[in-house]
Design a protein that fits this description.
Layout lengths: L11 H10 L30
């Protein structure tokens, strides 16, 4: 990836609107990939260091 965007949309119609009006209009964007998450496993990037 060059960039990874985490977004939350109300539904797929909202995502399609966002992708079409924002993402695909950005200069230099040649392709996008979409990954849908059905349930949240971990919502933080913090790691317990055990220190």
């Amino acid at each position: 990836f060059d960039y990874l965007l985490k977004t939350r949309m109300a539904d797929m119609a909202a995502y399609r609107n966002f992708a079409g009006t924002v993402l695909w209009q950005l200069p230099g964007v040649r392709e996008t990939r979409t990954y849908a998450v059905m349930e949240e496993v971990k919502s933080t990037t913090r790691l317990a260091l055990g220190v």
